[in-house]
């Protein structure tokens, strides 16, 4: 057995192994504390690029989904406006059946003015439903004209409903995409906590064993002292 004291190869080897184990354990601790498998580009460069791309897609989809909700909310307001105009037209139909009088004419004019006010404040779908375009601007309108106006508003309500249904499908599809893309990102970026805990425990044991072996390697050089005694 060769005994050397200037270069303790066994101790150097044990120290190198110990440093590697400590580094691996620190990485496991980082992953367990953050919940991410990828914390730095060095952990998985290509995976990080892919995960970031998926995250960007999710963020864009979330903005688009919010826009869809806002658009649908606007349509709901327009639906309410159109329903109000239809109710006004139904009242006009009642007035037209009463015959001409100062009282009915005054109410008719007030109702026509309210239709114009609603149309002016409403969206693209409602703005065209003015008293003039509906043919009910004055009391001279006959009952058939009022019925036609009601049908026109009904068609607008149908268009609004169809668009709302389309947006519901759009929003549902956006949510499905967000869920699937988020799952894909998670599979790349997130750490399997159970698996990483196994790695951490293994490295803990190796660290303790490596520390003990380094101590033994350092002690072996002291055997030389027995030769000098």
Task: Name some characteristics of this structure.
229 residues; mainly alpha; f41 fragment of flagellin, N-terminal domain
What does this protein structure show overall?
With 229 residues, the chain is mainly α. The chain has one domain: Up-down Bundle (f41 fragment of flagellin, N-terminal domain). The mean pLDDT is 89.
Q: What does the main sheet amount to? A: none
> Low-confidence parts lasting 5 or more residues at pLDDT below 50?
none
Query: CATH superfamily assignment?
Result: f41 fragment of flagellin, N-terminal domain
Distance N to C terminus: 18 Å
Helix content: over 70%
Shape: rod-shaped
Number of domains: 1
- CATH level-1 class: Mainly Alpha
Counted beta strands: 0
Assigned CATH architecture: Up-down Bundle
- What is the number of helices? 8
Radius of gyration, whole Å: 39 Å
Structural class: mainly alpha
CATH topology title: f41 fragment of flagellin, N-terminal domain
Chain-averaged pLDDT? 89
In short:
The protein has 229 residues and is mainly alpha-helical. The chain has helices spanning 9-34, 45-98, 102-121, 124-127, 131-134, 143-189, 193-220, 224-228.
């Amino acid at each position: 057995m060769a005994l050397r004291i200037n270069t303790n190869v066994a101790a150097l080897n044990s120290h190198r192994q110990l440093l590697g184990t400590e580094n691996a354990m620190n990485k496991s601790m980082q992953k367990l504390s953050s919940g991410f498998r990828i914390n730095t580009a060095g952990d998985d460069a290509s995976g990080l690029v892919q995960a970031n791309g998926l995250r960007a897609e999710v963020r864009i989809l979330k903005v688009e989904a919010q826009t869809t909700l806002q658009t649908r909310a606007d349509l709901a307001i327009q639906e309410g406006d159109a329903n109000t105009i239809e109710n006004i037209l139904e009242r006009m139909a009642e007035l037209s059946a009463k015959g001409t009088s100062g009282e009915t004419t005054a109410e008719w004019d007030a109702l026509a003015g309210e239709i114009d006010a609603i149309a002016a404040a409403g969206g693209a779908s409602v703005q065209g439903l003015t008293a003039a375009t509906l043919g009910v601007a004055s009391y001279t309108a006959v009952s058939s004209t009022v019925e036609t106006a009601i049908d026109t508003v009904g068609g607008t309500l149908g268009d609004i409903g169809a668009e709302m249904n389309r947006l519901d499908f759009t929003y549902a599809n956006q949510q499905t995409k967000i869920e699937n893309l988020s799952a894909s990102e998670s599979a790349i970026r997130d750490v399997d906590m159970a698996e990483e805990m196994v790695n951490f425990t293994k490295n803990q044991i190796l660290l303790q064993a490596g520390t003990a072996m380094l101590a033994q390697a350092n002690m072996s050089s002291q055997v030389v002292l027995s030769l000098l005694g």
